[in-house]
Amino acid sequence: MAEPIIRFDNIRKSFGTLTVLDGLSFDVMPGEKLALIGPSGSGKTTILRILMTLENISGGHIEVCGEQLYHMQKAGREVPADEAHLHKMRRHIGMVFQHFNLFPHKCVLDNITLAPILTKGEPRAEAEKRGMDLLDMVGLADKARAMPSQLSGGQKQRVAIARALALQPRIMLFDEVTSALDPELVEEVLAVMKRLANETDMTMLLVTHEMGFAHEFADRVLFFDRGHIIEQGPPDRIFTNPSHERTQTFLRKIIAAGHRV
Ligand SMILES: Nc1ncnc2c1ncn2[C@@H]1O[C@H](COP(=O)(O)OP(=O)(O)OP(=O)(O)O)[C@@H](O)[C@H]1O
């Protein structure tokens, strides 16, 4: 039996007096495609940001790729991770955000190759070759020398996905990647993510309000409310036959608002 690639063990997270996660535990297996769904404010984004070390934790342990994320061993004792350890661990994970945050003064290909060249010391030719392969994969090979301002929102988000993939992470995190896009541009971004999900063995965690997409994309859906996993299971069961009353209410509201699940 394979070991989990991500393990949340009794994670607590507070912002001042607000406790967002209060003893959260769950595992993710290598290659799994997980959708995190739930009402606004239930802690989904916080979970991804904690994994990306953009937020610290208030308690508990997280294991990523067999190593502690926020702790390390020193002289046989467990101590908080230092910056060098966090830096090493971050390489396992890529993240795509709601806002693409491309470098406006760099062309598309330079946006993709900058991190591999600067943070991993990759030769430019190698980084550019993989950058072009990634642009091909997201359907933007003809935009390599375009500037971000010349792209649509959907194209920018596809570049952001290629940029995150350029560091060859084992885990990809997607946080509401289509919610800042005009509706007609959503599908092209979802198609790229679907392709990644189908054609790679990468572990992927998706936070989304697009239930129809979560249904198609995920192997397992986790329904959160107020920082707790209320229920989890295969998308067919969660979306068509949820067992918990809070999940039922949540999905009823989504359907009543005219969205598909
Ligand atoms: N930096 C912060 N400082 C203070 N409170 C925060 C911070 N980040 C998040 N929170 C609070 O933590 C709670 C959980 O937020 P989070 O963004 O993780 O929820 P979410 O489930 O992703 O919501 P949404 O679906 O609206 O994105 C919310 O009450 C939010 O206001």
Task: Describe the protein's topology.
Elements: E1 6-15, E2 18-28, E3 33-37, H1 44-51, E4 59-64, E5 67-68, E6 71-74, E7 77-80, H2 83-90, E8 93-96, H3 108-120, H4 124-137, H5 153-165, E9 171-175, H6 183-199, E10 203-207, H7 211-217, E11 220-225, E12 228-233, H8 235-240, H9 245-256
Parallel strand pairs: 3-10, 3-11, 8-9, 9-10
Antiparallel strand pairs: 1-2, 1-4, 4-5, 6-7, 11-12
Helix pairs in contact: 3-4, 3-5, 4-5, 5-6
Describe this structure in words.
This protein has helices at residues 44-51, 83-90, 108-120, 124-137, 153-165, 183-199, 211-217, 235-240, 245-256, and strands at residues 6-15, 18-28, 33-37, 59-64, 67-68, 71-74, 77-80, 93-96, 171-175, 203-207, 220-225, 228-233. With 261 residues, it is α/β, with parallel strands linked by helices. The protein has a domain at 103-168. Helix 5 (153-165) runs parallel beside helix 6 (183-199). The longest helix has 17 residues, at 183-199. It is globular, with a radius of gyration of 19 Å. The structure holds adenosine-5'-triphosphate (ATP). Adenosine-5'-triphosphate binds next to strand 2 and helix 1.
Briefly characterize the structure.
This protein is an alpha/beta fold and 261 residues long.
